[in-house]
Amino acid sequence: MIRANFSRFVVNLIQSDLNLMKIICSHKFGLSLRVLLLALIAPASIQANEKIADIDFCQVPDAAYQQLDVSETYSSLENLHDVKTINERGMLRVLLHKKKNDCTISQTEQQLIQEFTNIHDLDLIWIYVENDWELLPELIKGNGDIIVAQDQSLSASIEDEVNFSHSWANATYKVVGRADNSRISRFEDLSGRQVVAYKDSPVWNTLVELSESQTGLVLKEIPSTLSYLEVMDRIKTGEYDLAVADSLFLDTFLPLNTELQASFSLSNERNMAWAVRTDDKELHKTLNQYLNQQHVTHDVASTHFDDLALIKDRGVLRVITSGNPSHYYLDEGKLRGFEYELLNEFASEHMLRLDVVLANSQEEMFTLLTEGKGDVIAASLPGSLIAEKDSIEYSEAYHYASPVIVGRDTDNAIIDIRDLAGRRITLAEDSPYWDYMMQLKQQGIEFDLVKADTGVNMEGALLMIALGMYDLTVVGNHQVESAYTKGIGIRTQLVLTEPLAHRWAVRTEDQQLNNALNEYIEQTFRSEKYNVLHAKYFEQAKILNNNDRVTTFSSLSPYDELTQRYADEYGFDWRLITALMFQESQFDPQATSYAGAEGLMQLIPATAEFMGVSDTRNVDSSINAGIRYLDYLRAKFEDTLLLEDRMWFTLASYNAGYGRVKRARILAEEMGLDKNQWFDNVELAMMKLAKPYIKNGEEVRYCRCGQTVVYVREIRTRYFNYIRLVETQMIARLSPSERKTNYIRSIN
Question: Which of 292, 532, 549, 627 has its CA 20 to 30 A from that of 400?
């Protein structure tokens, strides 16, 4: 109560003397004082009846909830809203409409804006208005820096006073029903059905008209006190038949609630974007650079609960694994690993691309699988040693290995399991042998069993053994016998069991996928191709250079420093540029194509001349010109395009030329496809352009555009895999003190 009273005192003091905030912001101790004041003000700003609230932006606000008008607190700073002042102030003031029965802001957008403020080391201040028409006047008056949770139609009345960022999502209002009912795919399907919606929904009037034109359609108003989640529960129980909801909510809700389905849109797409004042050019540029560099990565771990048929529709098989040489690693820009190559062959047979989702622990692997973040786990799992789960089913055995105790080659030999008494066994986070070793302890063998430091994988644990930092560990005998461990001072001390069957794991309901995996294993296991692959990773004399281990991974290419510098300058993710560079030249500065393209970025003579480059084989010039040309192509596409699609269109233009992509978009619209979406839409039109036709009695092609479709898909797959590798290996390289620092930052 004392704190609450003091908080109100501070708020009243600042509101009564607004010069105080100016003094604090300019004082040499301003940052510390701001943090202290914000810590005191925040509870007064977001609590009701002394209850601190973590605002769930997709819930109906509590009736007792009161949000102070923070804009008044900073109204004296209304003309101080450029990037420099925002940074000096240390806070970004975000205006949004506090809705009563709808998502105030979607989970994805909230994460994006929070990530932006974290990157720029800013505090995030939410400023609410009661009506959406108040947003623009408040922004223009300087009572906020940015408007979120709105689409680009917001500025229709004062277009010249507001600029919008790139569109980060497209949204519609969709009809939702139970998955076991007939799917709604057209207006006529609503006849004889009950539809519920909020009366202040933008599509309410459309629904009223439909209720008059569609026989038997019953329209019912949702009480304003009900949240989306409560509405969804009523559909599940049958209390409601159909409901209308925002796709921004449904995109995150439906993948985890498969008993519901949504497929019919009642409205046109809304281009969701952030609004700033037209004179805030630097803020506008900074937001767009962030979205260009970061937003595409948010799609990396999308949620799908698909069996093989739908996976084929999607075109991508997602394998969950850990980063080590027997599973998956990066070698001179190429993706390798026994598990990766084995499943990549399976994916190829089914006309699928292989996407990789990296996990740091076995527990995380199973969590990702059950949450729909991946389709199959491939990580040397000894199925017989892992606790059974009703939600998980295992494939037939594709590999066999014995768990072994590994120690330094200078240690005394371990003859019997009883020699483990008094020793310390450290297991990596991705080890599947924890439960088995716990069972040994329970049998009376007195040894210490501990988990490795966060981020230390199997290979890292073996290196720790060699360095004397860990005593013993447990891995599969195939892992310790592989060539990358030779000469580092470790050896197998004790074989714990006979060889155990390694199996892949899928969700229990995905029987089509499991059956297909089993058929593949039956055909492949111990075949010549399998044996060659096995020898490559576990029997040959050299896999990795000992100075280039996965645990000390630090680069994607030999040119990371240049790539990062120029990518940052033009607002690209450097990992995307690296993926493109590998696709173009496999990092060979001397590469030359049949069409005369040269260098790392494969610039044709006309493009090189346009970019002012005379030596295309010069590494610096090639990377710089290639990125500048990408920036030039990106600017040709509308800002209203979804960021991901704008990027894929840009890549397609880099490969096929802007004119061909433009023609493909026109053709896509004629084919009834979405001209603003690349995958499964414009790429299909590109394929059609590639088909030969007869002209003057001869067979000709407009273009080799089919190559462009493959080109974009392969770059996207490699890019997403690079993202996961970089983020995982960055964690692995952190020292304990750095990990602690990162953890503290993550919770503050």
Answer: 549
